[in-house]
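As a warm-up, study this chain.
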Amino acid sequence: PSVVRTTPVRDTVNVPTSTEVLRVEFSEYIERSSVPQALSVTPTFEQQLQFDWSGRTVEIELPSALRDSTTYIFTFDTNLSDAHGVSLESPITVAFSTGSRINWGQIRGRVASGPRGIAQQRVDVYAYVLTPDALGPRPLPDRPSYRTQTGEDGGFEFNYMREGRYYVVALRDNNRNRRPDPNEAFAVPPRFALRADSSAATVPVPWLLAQSDTTAPTLQQVRPVSQRRFRVSFDEPVRLQTRAPEAWAPQDSASGTPVDVQGVYAAPDRPAAVVVRTA
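Now compare it with the structure written out below.
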């Protein structure tokens, strides 16, 4: 589905703050239950939006007066589907301004995963405003300043942003709370601060989506490989944070006597193992 026309018209300026309804006509009949889930608005309203349908047209009832001199962005993400269950390939954005100008800032990029850079579709992408001296939004605010979603090619595009610096993250938001949770795949930006402006080029380095690992490795086996070396195997690949011998404290299994360690190194061809060399 696509948007045929809107009232107020897309990209219109000086829209009255007393406007109570955004009317959107689609090219075909829409699965109505998909709209509340697919729609996000920037800036957000405190109260819930209401929807009134007539054929292919939906009236989105705005619950409060609009802010003066503000660009409003209504984004329908890829959860929007037609009456046959066919979803959008990429988000649709409708914007207008209650002031004399509309924001034209843009940020474009791509989300991928794995060493081969496989495109990741239907991933939420959030942009957080950065103050001029900010080192990062820590913790992340409760809600992002802007939201969009990746298309089938993994690409995403923010439009109508206020020009400035942003921290942009990608998130497989399974529970739709618009916050990264421990078991959700997450990607930090290739550069800490990205600038939104009207001539922004696509960020050349992709956001790399990865699953957070919150479980420590489990010891599986300790096996001697020579008179003064033994191999410690775990249930998953491990990386040595330190090679300091004093970080390891093995004991003789028969006497319980501490064993001095002279060195620790990763096991060749065994990513889930570490070799310990004793005195």
